[in-house]
């Protein structure tokens, strides 16, 4: 019997693997035999098979997680706000966002949205200010 996966707490079952589970069950293998072949828990095999017999499909159900309240337009607005003031922190952007739109938003959501758009936090370098005779001409 092949080894079970260790250290992996959670992993989505691919569509191919779901089809393989259904095919092995239709071939007459038991839940435990299928679980050993695909290296999954037998309760997972039972759940996939039950979904296949009840609904006739093995696709994942959509809608897990929170709904996205912001639209693409809101994301563009947020990026514009971040680009106009490059030194603003995410908390400052939260304050600007809530006054502009009236919708509350957490700082981690703003950071995640900006990261998805390719904007990362940049820490400005600390430098000694130049004297007038050292300014570039």
Plain-language structure description:
The chain is mainly alpha-helical and 137 residues long. Helix content is 50%, strand content 0%. The protein has six helices and no strands. Helix 2 (31-38) packs across helix 3. It is elongated, with a radius of gyration of 26 Å. The model has no long low-confidence stretch (mean pLDDT 83).
Annotate the secondary structure layout.
Blueprint: H1 15-26, H2 31-38, H3 42-55, H4 72-84, H5 90-101, H6 107-116
Q: Which characteristics define this entry?
A:
elongated, Transposase_Tc1-like, single chain, 137 residues, 0% strand, 6 helices, mainly alpha
Structural class assignment: mainly alpha
Gap from first CA to last CA: 76 Å
In the predicted model, the low-confidence regions spanning at least 5 consecutive residues are: none
Mean pLDDT: 83
Described by strand count, sense and barrel closure, the largest sheet is: none
Strand content: under 5%
Write down how many β-strands occur, each being a DSSP E stretch of 2 or more residues. 0
GO cellular component, one term: nucleus
Organism: Trichonephila clavipes (Golden silk orbweaver)
Protein name: Transposable element Tc1 transposase
GO molecular function, one term: DNA binding
């Amino acid at each position: 019997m092949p080894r079970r996966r260790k250290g992996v707490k959670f992993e989505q079952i691919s569509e191919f693997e779901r089809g393989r589970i259904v095919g092995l069950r239709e071939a007459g293998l038991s839940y435990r035999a299928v679980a050993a072949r695909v290296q999954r828990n037998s309760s997972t095999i039972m759940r996939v098979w039950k979904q296949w017999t009840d609904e006739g499909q093995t696709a994942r159900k959509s809608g897990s997680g929170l709904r996205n309240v912001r639209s693409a337009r809101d994301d563009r607005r947020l990026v514009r706000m971040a680009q106009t003031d490059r030194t603003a922190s995410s908390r400052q952007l939260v304050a600007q966002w809530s006054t502009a739109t009236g919708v509350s938003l957490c700082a981690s959501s703003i950071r995640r949205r900006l990261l998805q758009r390719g904007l990362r936090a940049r820490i400005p370098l600390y430098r000694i200010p130049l004297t007038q005779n050292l300014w570039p001409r």
